[in-house]
Design goal:
By secondary structure, this protein is mainly beta. 0% of the residues lie in helices and 51% in strands. The chain contains no helices and 11 strands. Strands 2, 4, 5, 6, 9, 10 and 11 form a 7-stranded mixed beta sheet that branches. It has a 4-stranded antiparallel beta sheet with strand order 1-3-8-7, with no helix packed on it. Strand 7 and strand 8 form a beta hairpin.
């Protein structure tokens, strides 16, 4: 089975940075797209970023474009989300997701999810 384990969350003041990691296991190769999602209390889960397998093309939600960068290290089976210039509205539980089948902006199109890592941004 595919397993996803997020790490790297924490608390930071507005304007600060964090780097999230998603360790992936269970795939026999690196030919899979990965996404980051987030969910704030009382809100729906929303897409943040997508990275394709090869050559690693990326897409971002408008709310994070220019501040967040998604990347992957296939040798380590790990996907990263570098978050800069954080804002209080970025506060949420962040999840990685895999096995995309359809539009990446629909959470129903993913087969596997991690348990999430909390990001809190103080004013």
């Amino acid at each position: 089975d595919v397993q996803l384990v997020e790490s790297g969350g924490g608390s930071v003041q507005a304007g600060g940075s964090l780097r999230l990691s998603c360790a992936v296991s269970g795939y026999t190769d690196c030919n899979y797209a990965m996404s980051w999602y987030r969910q704030a209390p009382g809100k729906e889960r929303e897409p943040v970023a997508l990275i394709f397998a090869n050559p690693g093309r990326t897409e971002y939600a408008d709310s994070v474009a220019g501040r967040f960068t998604v990347s992957r290290d296939n040798a380590k089976n790990t996907v990263y989300l570098q978050m800069n210039s954080l804002k209080p509205e970025d506060t949420a539980m962040y999840y990685c997701a895999a096995e995309l089948r359809g539009n990446w902006r629909n959470p129903a199109n993913y087969m596997f999810w991690g348990q999430g890592t909390q990001v809190t941004v103080y004013p």
